[in-house]
Amino acid sequence: MKTLSSPFLPVTASVGQVMRDVLIALAPGVVVYALLFGPGVLINIVLAVLTCELIEAAVLKLRGRALKPFLLDSSALVTGVLLALAVPPTAPWWIIVVGCGFAMLLGKHVYGGLGYNPFNPAMVGFVVLLISFPVQMTAWPSMHPLWDTTDAVSGATALDHVKTQLSLERTLSEIRGDTPLGLFAGRGWEWIALAYLLGGGYMLWRRTIRWQIPVGLLLGMTVIAGAFWAYDGDRYASPLFHWFSGATMLGAFFIATDPVSAATTPRGRFVFGFGIGMLTYVIRTWGGYPDGIAFAVLLFNICAPTLDRYLQPRIYGQRRDKPQA
Amino acid sequence: MSLMTRLFGFRGGLHLDYRKEMSTGTPIQIAPVPPQLILPLSQHAGNPAKPRVKVGDRVLRGQTIADADGFVSLPVHAGTSGIVSAIEPRPIPHASGLSAPCIVIDADGKDEALATPEWEPAEDINALDAQTIRDRVRRAGVSGLGGAGFPSFIKLAPGHPVETLIINGAECEPYISCDQLLMAERADEIIGGIQVILHTIRAGRCLIGIEDNKSWAIAALKAAAAADQRIEVVVVPTRYPQGGEKQLIQTLTGLEVPSRGLPLDLGLVVQNPGTARAVWRAIRHAEPLTSRVVTVTGSAVSHPQNFDARIGTPMRFLIDLAGGYTTPPDRLLMGGPMMGFALPTDTLPIVKSTNCILATAPGELRPDEDAMPCIRCGACQDACPINLLPQQMYWHARGKEYDKAQSLNLFDCIECGCCAQVCPSHIPLVQYYRHAKTEIWSEQQEKRKADAARERHEARLARIEREERAKEEARARKKALLAASQAAAKPAAATAPSPVEASASAVGNDDPVARAIAAAKAKKAAAPAADSTSDDPVARAIAAAKAKKAAATSGTAETDDPVARAIAAAKAKKAAANADAAATNTKRAKPSAADDERIAAAVAAAQARKAAKAAAAAQPQATTEADDPVARAIAAAQARKAAQSADASVPAAPQSSSATTGDADDPVARAIAAAQARKAAKAAAVASESPSAPTPATNNTADEDPVARAVAAAKAKKAAKAAAAVAPEPVPAAASETSAQTDDPVARAIAAAKARKAARAAGETPTE
Ligand code: SF4
Ligand code: SF4
């Protein structure tokens, strides 16, 4: 439809702009990640981005859509980067390619492409990989921090390590000094998470994302983690640990906030985030996988339309006691 | 001015690039009178005005050239002196792009005003009462100058206590500066108008909301309002859509206009500063609204500025005054870029609601481009001042799931355009909402139409069936009757049925009447009234009647079943009489049902009596009320020995009603006269009918007279006659009134009938 009617003023925002803001916000996290884990991170990103863009172009072509606006919108780019960040830096190249294929095809284009996917495409790709290739997907390499001349540290992530050790009847205070653990969360990972937090702040400031999902997610995680931690600090890690371990920050600001598949009403978004935070903790603590962000996000993607339906905002002039159902 | 007022603000909204300084560099220029003024009859919300001048008339400035038509309507005044050169549809500036009737005045260049204004200028407004002010504001044709064009006098009669008057000087749309300059340059007139309005609506306080980017206007109004403690100038933040009525109210008072409610529900009335000034000029100077301030701007205009221009001035004339185009305009808009609409050409006139003409250069506005899919980013929702869910409404509107869009409060959308303005996918969201609203409206209309059509169709089927049956019976009886009825032959011959409805009906009425007269004269006995469809039955009825002693009856029309039954009953009795009523036409199923009942009642009554007669009345669309009278008439008639029946039928002719009625009268009168000339009783038939669409009032009168006359005639004679008239009416809406009115005549007819011994018959006429 052409703009035959008002408003007539030029619109400055564009989908490409939104996606580029996301990429800018990811940059600090990527840099820290690469510094810690080496150039494998960057290679993965480039490979994933190329694969995603290629698939996007091929599908658009097959569907007879205009290539240019959709390739320029950078949404495939974001999917590629997010997926690459979720896969271990040393994973074989085909893992990335397969993951991108699932993300783009099963996660996005089977539903009609941009704007129509009910699930977060990067998470679809990630979960497929995690289930199909658990060995490759959990083999994290040793960290080689540029500034750290000591020997390589263990390959286990903090979440993994804590989970294993707790199952060996050790307590958290006993393992505090273990190598995978850093100042307040996973060694190294805590800095990556901080960098993501920084990027998230940038997106909030740019209004690329709204506060409800990240705040809801972190709060949801805090509530449940805090309760168990208060109950038994030796068996349950602190909220702070959970915030800065695994993919919490990446999930809170970059994954759960994927607008297409998230809830859209303000209250819906908050509940959406809150639920993901709680569920992530549950999966981490009692589930079979060390991290739970991806599963939690996908599960709540399913709930998003329902949340939107029941959590509509009160509109101007509507009685306060009776929000629209 | 009192203390600082606390501001509340509204949610959502945008900071836009205002571009107002383009047109604020020059003071308001008084535009000269163009060679021709084009004045649309509909420049306001409500009914178009009705012209009171003719082509060729000379008119003077300020003269009323078209009158308000109905309550929500306004007159139109000549903006200058000249000759009315055309009254015809011309393209008008409206979002629909359609043409509408306009009065075109060729200016004579003298710009001569009426010698004396159409009402008195008022020195002291406080000496005027509210009603006088409202009346003058109405006669001055003042409508809201802010955009919607609602007749202002209505807001001056709130019918509800008003606490605060709000003057909406926010003018938040980019480019537009007419209110801003008006407030800066004519602050005293605006304040004067405010005082008039406060006086009229008895409000104790006025808040003038102005955005903080209009410092001159603020200063000027503050100075002008300094002497009046009731008036406070409130500076509000510059944010689109601050000038939305709902948003300004929220900013100033913190209150929200209820969904689907009015500011009045909060004790508030909102007016535009230009309207306040127009009220002032109307009351103080007795000047009708013939000019307004218009911003002519945009990058395609050489010297953007504001003009005080006569309403009806072609836009091109103003653009030329502003130095013409710098470049062929890419788009021409009326109103601002956020809520205005595109015009097809610059030859259109400015109207009362034209605040801005915006001619833009290429690249100044958004390009025509294809939208990307919605990425559900929620930017639209953050911007929406109503807190709607634009992306979800869009989703449903696009999927044509209008009911779902509606349940997301689509109709609360003020079409401000904020959502579309921030959408990264460049989706023309508002266009979808407008389309959805239009679709929903037309769906509702369609549904109403379909219901009406279905009813009509069913009624038609019922009628056809009835007619068929009537013919059958008629044929069976025909032979027997014929022999006896030679005399009656004439009347029967007279018939002329008219196939087609409206026009035919008039004719139909006549014939029957004529026939009735003829029959009456030739015979002692009765006269039938036949109606178009009913020849045979009539003839038969007549024959039967003659064969009997008793008086005659009238047959009617289409009716049939009832008639047939009535006849049968009557025959079974000694006294002969029959009445047939016919029901005519009928467009609806219900009436016929009613007929049946009535007839059944009539039959029963007839049987109980010896001299029975049945009267059946049929009316087409007649209402139940019409029935009762008939029933009563029948009962009364039965109480008498003499037989008679009255029936009336009336159908209605749809459009030709007035004509029909007219015709019906005479015949009726004639029938009566004829009847009176005889000793024997005859019947007067009255029928009448037809009222139709136009005005119920006419019908009644028409109905009454004949009836009245019939009654009078009947009384003067020994032999009684009754005339029953029934007038139904075609138009549903008018129906109830009509029926109510019919009662009286009927009642009178009954009374008359009772007073007499003799019988009478009433014939009826059906129409169709
Ligand atoms: S701003 Fe546009 S893209 Fe974003 S949610 Fe609204 S309609 Fe969709
Ligand atoms: S146009 Fe309607 S939906 Fe869009 S921002 Fe304005 S009020 Fe909200």
Per DSSP, what share of the residues of chain B sits in E-state strands of 2 or more residues?
5-15%
- What are the low-pLDDT stretches of chain B, counting only 5+ consecutive residues below 50? 490-520, 522-595, 599-747, 749-755, 757-768
Basic shape of chain A: globular
Average pLDDT for all residues of chain A: 83
Distance between the termini of chain B: 70 Å
Structural class of chain B: alpha/beta
Question: Would you give an account of this structure?
Answer:
The complex is a heterodimer of chains A (325) and B (768). Chain A has 325 residues and is mostly helical. Chain A has one domain: Orthogonal Bundle (Ammonium transporter fold). Helices cover 61% and strands 0% of the residues of chain A. Chain A has 15 helices and no strands. In chain A, helix 11 runs parallel beside helix 14 and helix 14 packs antiparallel against helix 15 (293-310). The longest helix of chain A has 23 residues, at 15-37. The radius of gyration of chain A is 20 Å and the shape is globular. Chain A starts with 14 loop residues before the first helix and ends in a 15-residue tail after the last helix. Chain B is of the alpha/beta class and 768 residues long. Chain B folds into four domains: 21-360, Rossmann fold; 375-496, no CATH class; 508-575; 590-768, no CATH class. Chain B is built from 23 helices and 19 strands. In chain B, the strands form five sheets. A six-stranded mixed β-sheet of chain B has the order 1-14-13-17-15-16, sandwiched between helices. Chain B is globular, with a radius of gyration of 35 Å. Mean pLDDT of chain B is 72; it is low at 490-520, 522-595, 599-747, 749-755 and 757-768. At the A-B interface, helix 1 of A face strand 16, helix 10, helix 13 and helix 14 of B. One iron/sulfur cluster binds at residues 383-384, 386, 388, 390, 413-419, 429-430 of chain B.
